[in-house]
Design goal:
The protein is mainly alpha-helical. It contains 9 helices and no strands.
C-alpha cells in the first residue's frame, strides 16, 4: 500500500507544535533543504530589539563602588574658585569677544565668497551684526559639513576640527546674552576668550587673533590686580 503524501504546508501546520513555528531566514531555508543544521552564531538569529529597550537592558556590568573615603572626599564642599571680575566686566568682555568673532566670520565668508542662504524672515547680510554669533556658527558648520569650505583655507587644513572649535565658542554667546546667568569664575572667562582665539586661528584671521590675545592679556592683568587689591577698577 502506497502511503499518502501530504503537502508540505499541511505537514508544517498540523504535525509541528504551534510554539515551534518561527520565521525562517533565506539562509536557514537553503541550509534546511540541504539537510544541514546552521551553526549557532550571531548571524543565525538576528536580535530584535524592542523600541522600549536599549543597549543598557542587554548584557552589562557595574563598576565596583568607590571606597567610603573616596566618596567622602568627593562629596565635600566644592573648593572656592576665584571670581574677581565684576558682572559688568564679564558682560563687557564676552560681548567684545562675540562681536569680534561675528566680524571674523563675516570677513571669512566675504573673502572666499561662500554663499549665504536667503531666508524670508531675515534681512540680507550687509554687516556682521545682521546675524547673531550662533547664526554665523550654524552657517560655517553647514558650509563645512556640505564640503563647501576647502581645507586649504583653514589653519593647517584642519577641516575636521572646525566644527568642534566653533561649538566650543557657542557658550560665549549664551553667556553674553543671558543676564540671569550665574557669575562665571575667572578661569571660565579666560577660557571663553581662548575659545574665541581658536576660532580666529583656524579661520586664519591674524587681526582677530591679535585682538583676542590682547583682550586675554588685559583681562588676565585685571584679574591679577584685583587679587592683590580688591578695590582695583582696571
Amino acid at each position: 500500500m502506497v502511503p499518502t503524501v501530504m503537502p508540505q504546508s499541511c505537514m508544517t501546520q498540523h504535525t509541528l507544535p504551534k510554539e515551534t513555528i518561527e520565521p525562517r531566514t533565506a539562509e536557514e531555508t537553503m541550509l534546511g533543504r540541504s539537510g544541514s543544521v546552521p551553526a549557532p552564531g550571531p548571524s543565525s538569529h538576528p536580535s530584535r530589539r524592542s523600541s522600549s529597550r536599549d543597549e543598557f537592558d542587554g548584557p552589562h556590568q557595574f563598576l565596583k563602588r568607590p571606597s567610603p573615603d573616596t566618596i567622602a572626599a568627593q562629596e565635600r564642599d566644592l573648593p572656592h574658585v576665584p571670581t574677581n571680575l565684576l558682572v559688568q566686566e564679564q558682560d563687557d568682555v564676552l560681548s567684545k569677544v562675540n562681536d569680534r568673532l561675528s566680524q571674523c566670520a563675516f570677513d571669512f565668508v566675504a573673502k572666499y565668497q561662500f554663499p549665504i542662504p536667503l531666508e524670508k524672515d531675515k534681512r540680507p547680510v550687509q554687516v556682521p551684526s545682521d546675524r547673531e554669533w550662533t547664526e554665523w556658527v550654524h552657517l560655517l558648520k553647514r558650509l563645512a559639513t556640505k564640503r563647501r569650505i576647502p581645507a586649504r583655507v583653514l589653519y593647517n587644513g584642519q577641516i575636521k576640527q572646525l566644527v568642534t572649535i566653533l561649538e566650543n565658542s557657542l557658550e560665549m554667546r549664551h553667556a553674553a546674552k543671558h543676564l540671569s546667568r550665574p557669575i562665571k569664575d575667572d578661569r571660565n572667562v579666560l577660557q571663553l576668550i581662548s575659545a574665541g582665539l581658536q576660532v580666529a586661528k583656524i579661520l586664519k584671521d591674524a587681526a582677530c587673533m591679535q585682538y583676542m590675545d590682547s583682550l586675554y592679556l588685559h583681562t588676565e592683568r585685571v584679574i591679577q590686580a584685583r587679587k592683590a587689591n580688591p578695590g582695583y577698577l582696571g
